[in-house]
Amino acid sequence: MNIPSEVEIIEVGPRDGLQNEPNPITTEQKKELISQLSKTGISRMETASFAHPKWVPQMADSEEIANYCNELGITYVALTPNAKALERAIQVKAPQIALFIGASSEFNKKNINKTTSESLIECESMVTRAKDAGMFIRAYISMAFTCPYQGHVSFDEVKYVCDRFVGLGVDEIDVGDTNGQANPKMVYERFSRLRDLYPDATYVGHFHDTEKMALANVIAAMQAGVTKFDSSIGGLGGCPYSPGATGNVATEELVNMLMRMGCETQINYQELLKVSPFAKSLSSRV
Ligand code: HMG
Ligand code: MG
Fold first, then answer.
1. Span from the CA of 190 to the centroid of ligand 1 (angstroms)
2. Active-site residue, selected from the candidate residues 69, 123, 147, 239
3. CATH number, domain with residue 31
């Protein structure tokens, strides 16, 4: 079995974990979560989203959160769904951004009010602008396996978005099982084909745990050579425009599994376990 000696785990709890939470979470609680996570050895986190506050109200305080992350001196990622969001991220000096486009056009219309082709066009100028600002660019292919609106998502739809991201020269391509319906066979096959087509791209696996296959999907992606994974403390999470989807794979479960297989994450498992109850206390779902 292909188990790498080390993987990078990117914590997405403060963003993906909280964005869909119906109960208000105060800015102070979010800061506390970020502060606690920053002491566990996690080197990179998604903490902010410059989505329109009407579309994702829970992330409306992202400017203040970004300023806090700057004060802490941590490396963080801010979600930027459009050019206006990117300008907000530049304004607060966010070091890393995340573009996100679904492989499914039906999802894109619901999630970002554009078709796949329209959002890819907007991405071109965004990438140029973000590179000029010296930002690291992660680019999500969401709904890369199935979609709650259109059902099956073909490999060609994934390839279409991936091809454009590779051409734009983004820093990493994050392949998302947004609704948590992928299985290990699909994951292995899709990542293997992407790697064959674009061997120099850096891939990240982003698995929601709706069907309790997220850990198995991590193992499957590793067999295809993936060494970077997103996870969320306490298994928090969900996308407001992905009905029925639950949280991401829990960071503590992922670190525990990798640790037992001798795979280094640089994260202190015992410290992580201390943060999980606080993270869960913020959620009405876990
Ligand atoms: P829109 O309504 O189509 O925007 O929203 P618009 O371009 O028509 O503009 C309407 C007004 O909003 C204008 O103001 C704009 O200036 C303003 P007006 O001129 O009328 O006064 N506006 C903004 N204001 C603040 N921030 C902005 C912004 N943009 C326009 N960024 C938009 C388009 C993309 C903004 C909206 O659809 C949106 O925010 N979508 C984001 C949805 C989202 O965040 N979903 C969850 C994240 S995706 C996810 O979870 C999946 C992921 O985890 C990976 C995975 O699991 O696979 C990443
Ligand atoms: Mg997600």
1. 29
2. 239
3. 3.20.20.70
